[in-house]
Amino acid sequence: SIITFKDFMQRYMMQDVVDPDKLGYLAQHDLFAQIPSLRNDIAIPDYCYTLPPPLKTSGSTNAGKSPPLQLDEPLLNAWFGPAGTVSPLHTDPYHNILCQVVGKKYIRLYSPDQADKLYPKGIEGGGVDMSNTSEVDAEAALDKIETDYPLFRQAEYVETILAEGECLYIPVGWWHYVRSLSVSFSTAVEAKG
């Protein structure tokens, strides 16, 4: 539901104890359009205006896929919420620079060549293409993963903890799972493709 920022703060950020089943997450939001004075605190690096090398398309995981989308200007979004908020395992159509402003986040990255083991969703009801999102809860109980998604445990990944003041480059096509370890505020610059 849509609530005011004040209500969001009172319900989800100012509580001593937060119910993990009722987490609020301001995710992939253009907060800077709503609060323009915040935008003055964010500098977009010059390299976000350059074109990186093209994505390698070897192997079956990229066969028939369109080239990355092109942006005229970098996109800037915000993520804000308490500990335990999650961005499920997915891939984005742009190069990303995830910047941790406050708090810490656990991040798991999978190369595009692991996609066949990540169980991408397909076309959902209403014709929505969800093939950029995995069916797998990356931190689910191992017995559930082994039963329902046997190839997932074979997928190779790297993981890190992103702390305040750190940035992480996520190339286009790389799958990523993100979980907040504390109250967290992040920005992401999605750059030219």
Which short descriptors sum up this protein?
4-stranded antiparallel sheet, 12% helix, 193 residues, 5-stranded antiparallel sheet, alpha+beta
Compact description:
The chain is of the alpha+beta class.
Number of helices: 4
Low-confidence stretches: 58-64
Name the overall outline. globular
Please estimate the helix content: 10-25%
Note the gap between the termini: 32 Å
Strand tally is 11
- Strand proportion: 25-35%
Roughly what is the average pLDDT, rounded to an integer?
Answer: 83
What is the fold's blueprint, element by element?
Elements: H1 5-13, E1 26-29, H2 31-34, H3 36-39, E2 75-81, E3 86-91, E4 95-102, E5 105-110, E6 123-124, E7 128-129, H4 142-148, E8 158-162, E9 167-170, E10 175-180, E11 184-191
Antiparallel strand pairs: 1-2, 2-11, 3-10, 4-9, 4-11, 5-8, 5-10, 6-7
Describe the structure.
The protein is an alpha+beta fold and 193 residues long. Helix content is 12%, strand content 30%. It contains four helices and eleven strands, in the order αβααββββββαββββ. The strands form three sheets. It has a five-stranded antiparallel sheet, with no helix packed on it. A four-stranded antiparallel sheet has the order 3-10-5-8, with no helix packed on it. A hairpin with a 3-residue loop joins strand 6 and strand 7. The longest helix is centred in the N-terminal third of the chain and has 9 residues. The two termini are 32 Å apart. About 4% of the residues have low confidence.
